[in-house]
Amino acid sequence: MKLKLIVLSLFLFTTSLLSAQVKFTAEVSREQIGINERLRVDFNMNKDGDNFTPPSFTGFKVVGGPNQQVSNSWVNGKSTFSKTYSYYLEPSAKGTKTIGQAEVTVEGTVYKTSPVTVEVGDAVERPQDGNNAAIVPEDNLHFVAEVSKPNPYLNEAVTVTYKLYVSERIGISNFRMLDNPTFPDFWSQALNMNSYRFEQGTYRGEPYRYAVVYKTLLYPQKTGKLEIDPVAISVAVDVPSQRRSIFGGVIYQTVEKRVTSPSREIDVKPLPSQGKPANFTGAVGSFEFSVDPSKTTLDAGESLTASVKVRGRGNLMLFDLPDLTVPSSLEIYEPERKENFSSTLNGTQGSLTEDYTIVPTRKGKYPIPGLNFSYFDPRSETYKSISTDDIVIDVENGPVGTPATSGSTTNSDSGVVSSNKQPVTLSGDQFRYIKLDANLKPINSASFFGSLLFWALLILPLLIIPLVIIFGKKREARANDVTGNRIRKADKLARKYLSEARKNLGEQQQFYIALERAMHNYLKAKLHIQTGEMSKERISEILSEKGVDQETTAQFIEILKSCEFARYTPASMVTMKQDYDKAANVISTLDKQL
């Protein structure tokens, strides 16, 4: 009996010693891999330790990890602990590779793993990387920028489409842009993105799903090699893990993955100097040109509108129309510029119009010289010119204008000077507006003095005098209120430029296009800058030179960014109203500071 107790005690003591022993091991997912495959190595310990030090991984490149996993379990009254550090390795060359010793400190004692040998052979046809959250997104998620034309001309439209390619091996829950793309060397226009939809396609010869994330239209403003900066997005990726559900199904793990598109470079060609017309102002594309008067027959004092119009596809916002000139007897006013165009992947198309108001002052026929418009056609790589016919304005009624030519000649034989001026012919009815039949009537013989009309005319001026004095004081006070006048003028200016945007409240695309156009038109009117200088960096520089404070400049730039961003992000009515109010306040503040 005593012997049995002794044997049992020795067994229990040995078991307790074995259970208390620290185990620290290194395991690899495979001992033989191809040069194009990847390897997972796990460092496992059955007790929690400190100061874990991995090996140097000579001959491998670490492409994932370290990932840490801790497990505690209690079975039949026994506690089990496990802690694992996992790395994902990519071999750098073929041959026999050794993964060195890892170290960890447990209760003051340093433990080391045994070295592990891996054979790296030739590349295999179908690499096996295993299902892990660190590596799977790397190989199955790609964000690319597709450029429509890598070698365009200066001011020729280039479209950039950003696509997210997703392999069939993984799924994604969501993705979002991490920043608003900027293109410093281009005039850019973000294209509207109503929704995201995945379609079937291929990437490097393999089947993939892809979605268009962002589209933009660019017009290069410099020649030479220009770089399109990378754009980053964050993607929530669902990848299969090594765990299983109670029914044996794979449990998926969501990993937040940042994906960046590679930078792209385009080589912008200068416009050819050979054959460039003298009146060329930078138009590149395919256009039609016309000058259309609203009427050609009218009376002196009446007005007509002459519309100088370009329509077609190209850089409509980046060139000037030729100026309309008229004879001195026609008064002409500054034109009203109207922009009616939209941008798609095929470029910007629509029309650009300048409406001139013309008022004749004298009777006669006045020719308006035709105009010539030149543009560069990148398809034929040639310059083209369009000329319009002269327009004759017939002013039928009004003061007679001076003859077009006048002078005198001398008869060499007789020495008599003769004039070639034409005599003025009077029609006899030039004084018809004078009334010859007065049809006078006798004044009422009743006494005017003391009548109701007499007292009314006498007292009324006395009552008006105080009102005139009060009105004069208010007018003077208003005139002396410099700050108030500036505010009222600025508010009026803001309402003028933002009127079109206000009409489109509720229509997201039209509203933000009108809002952006209003901000640009305000700067053009106030600072006399061209549309080609409308980059955000240039606007900030100009406003800083004009003494505008940084806060107001930042608010102006922020509104422009909101206009670009809102074209591919849904916006509510409340957001549009807030952006409208911000724009009105910024224009008002800018006008006071300028």
From TrEMBL:
Keyword annotations: Membrane, Signal, Transmembrane, Transmembrane helix
Database matches in InterPro entries: BatD (IPR025738)
Transmembrane segments: 448-471
Record region (Disordered): 399-419
Cleavable signal peptide: 1-20
Pfam families attached to this UniProt entry: BatD (PF13584)
Entry keyword Transmembrane: yes
Coiled-coil boundaries: none
Ranges of biased composition (kind: Polar residues): 403-419
Keyword Lipid biosynthesis: no
Protein name: Aerotolerance-related protein BatD
Source organism: Zunongwangia atlantica 22II14-10F7
